[in-house]
Amino acid sequence: MKIAFLGQKGIPAKSNGVEKHMEEVAIRLTKKGHEVFLFPPLLRALFQNFDVIHFPFSFSKTFIFFISIFKRKTACIRIKIPQGVDVSYDENSEYLKKFNLQKGSYILSSGRLNKKSGIHNLILAFKNLEDKHLSREKKLIIIGNGSSKDEYFKELKDCARGRENIIFVADQTDEISRQLFSHAYCFVESSESEKTPFALLEAMGYGKAVLSRGTKKNIEALRDEAGLIFRLDNAHDLEEKLVFLINNPVIAKKIGEKAMFKAKMEFSWEKITNQIETAYEDAILQKGKVLNKSYERNI
Question: Quick one: 21 and 157 in the same domain?
């Protein structure tokens, strides 16, 4: 198929989100033998011949309908591409020395350090474990950028003050981040976001036992015993579940194995690409109609 992607400025993508998702799919479609063209503006794509024009989900259905009248021989489809995951375990651990870490010696969390991140609850829970001598000398590593001018980041630093086992790590290179994920004991996702965070899927892909806040999307992502859920706005439940994982390494390992399997089966870019390819084929058979495909977590 000859496919036009609209709204993409080029490869590699300069930002995460929609552009990054389209890049992942475009690369894999090309490997499958399709011709893929990337267009930031619409007009350039309108005056060339394609089998499929792929519109981002931000385009209105009405707008695409009028385009489909003009391009009757082309299948027009808008697709909401979900977050996928494609990670590779790194046996190396030389970068852990930078943070004075050993394999399996730390609990990992990663994401934007804003109020919705819920990191303050994680820090409080970890401090309680240390005070009760239940942390088994584990450290808490928090990946994310923060500014000394940001009030919430100041609160986090103040909350962790005097705790040498709580370490803030700014966003790292892909290689360092890969090693931090590869050798973490477990991963905690405390965000209030209703969307499934990429870091959660990433941790699953690395085979980590994930402890996550019980949002609807996260519960769905971790179903079938692929992770543990703590109740919303319940720091005590977070603390209890964290103690359980720390005290049960065999169970934590099994949870991580199930998470890795699920990540490969449901959230791989290969599977997402295959389903989008099928959607294109359906659209070609129904030219003149505007098909909407919103693949949230059903793939």
Answer: no
Domain of residue 133: give its range: 94-266
Same domain, 196 and 234: yes
Span 223-255, pLDDT tens digits:
999 999 998 778 889 999 999 999 999 999 999
Please choose, from the candidates 219, 203, 184, the residue with its C-alpha nearest in 3D space to the C-alpha of residue 111.
203
| 248/178 same-domain check | yes
User: E strands along the chain, which residues?
Assistant: 2-6, 35-39, 52-56, 75-80, 106-110, 139-143, 166-169, 186-189, 209-213, 228-230, 291-294
Cβ-contact 280, 272 below 8 angstroms: no
263 contacts 204 by C-beta, under 8 angstroms: yes
Asked whether the whole model's pTM tops 0.70, one would answer yes
Residues 104 and 247 in one domain: yes
